[in-house]
Amino acid sequence: MVKRVRDTRLAIWCIAMLCTMGFMGCDTISEGLPTYDESSIVKVGDVAPQFEIQSIDNQMLTLPNNEPSLLILFSPLCPDCKALLDELHASLDAEVSLPTIIAIAREGDAEELREYRNKNGYFIDMAEDTEKAIYYQYATMYVPRCYLIDSQHVVRYMTYEFTAGDVAKIVNEYATLEL
After folding, report:
1. What is the DSSP letter of 40?
2. Which of 45, 49, 100, 159 is the most exposed place for a label (fewest CB within 10 A)?
3. Is the pLDDT of residue 23 over 50?
4. What angle do CA 58, 66, 70 make, to 5 degrees?
5. Who's near 127: CB < 8 A, 6+ residues apart?
């Protein structure tokens, strides 16, 4: 009887720890963690750091010259990131006008990202940044992050984590950019 109680307590503890780790996977803000603003290296009005990264389709991705882009920093482990990408793809399916989209994952290797993209029916360019080299040029924590970048590489709008309607706001901001 004592062993069963101990095993049950251990199982409950393990489940609690897994749940806690799952919630922290999206960097949910809690006491003592930096605010979104404090964790942002690049902010609205800043010039976006340039980068070059190989996509999971073996294409070189970089911020395009003379055209706007939408940079998404995400994790395939994050439910908020999936919700953002789902909302984004619903907009694309509705033929909403959006800039070039580059999604960079701070976790997951190329094969895991291919599976994630295929499983969810996504078709945007994705790249792995497991060393977080690009991610750390933009922020220190929290995903997803979206950066609407104009044709001169200036960040014109950004979002932190995800709230329903974020993609509509990005679309509206994109419409105000001079193309």
Report:
1. B
2. 45
3. no
4. 60
5. 53, 54, 55, 56, 61, 102, 103, 104, 105, 113
Residues in the chain: 179
Beta bridge partners of 171: none
**How open is the CA angle 110-115-121, to the nearest 5 degrees?**
120
Query: What pLDDT does residue 96 have?
Result: 73
Buried b (16+ CB within 10 A) or exposed e, 148-158: bbbbebebbbb
Q: Which residue has 């996509």 as its token pair?
A: 55
CA dist., res. 160 & res. 57, Å (int): 27
Q: Quick one: which H or E segment has residue 87?
A: helix 79-93
Under 8 Å CB-to-CB from 161, ≥6 apart: which residues?
Answer: 26, 27, 36, 80, 142, 143, 144, 145
Which tens digit of pLDDT belongs to each residue from 87-142?
999 888 777 778 899 999 999 999 999 999 999 999 999 999 999 999 999 999 99
